[in-house]
Give the backbone structure.
Amino acid sequence: MARMTHVTGVSSIMAKLRAGGMQQGALMEGRLKKAGLFVQRESQKVVPVEFAVLKNSAFTRKLKGIGFTADIAVGYTAFYAAYVHEDLQARHKPGKKAKYLEHVVIENRRRILAIIAGKI
């Protein structure tokens, strides 16, 4: 079963935006989608590739909600995606690695938050 990685700090940014009178939920939803697309793009740079099936199965989409309540998911649909993501013993080509989503989120936390905050 796949694990989900979350970026901490998003809820505090959204609370500050709401408190500051920002009523533009559609704008926030767009920023969340933009951040998701950034994670997808960066993960595709390090996802292990043999025949490109896994890399080409990447997606970013809204699961539910609108505006401030939108849930945006980033993942891979290839049936073996979770296995490759979690297999720390596998040997990958240079620049490719397991935890290809998790590492991207951890390494780019500040940039992801800046995208969501509208600073990028």
Q: What stands out?
A: The chain has one domain: 26-117. The first strand starts at residue 58 and ends at 64. The chain is about 50% helix and 10% strand. The chain has a mean pLDDT of 88.
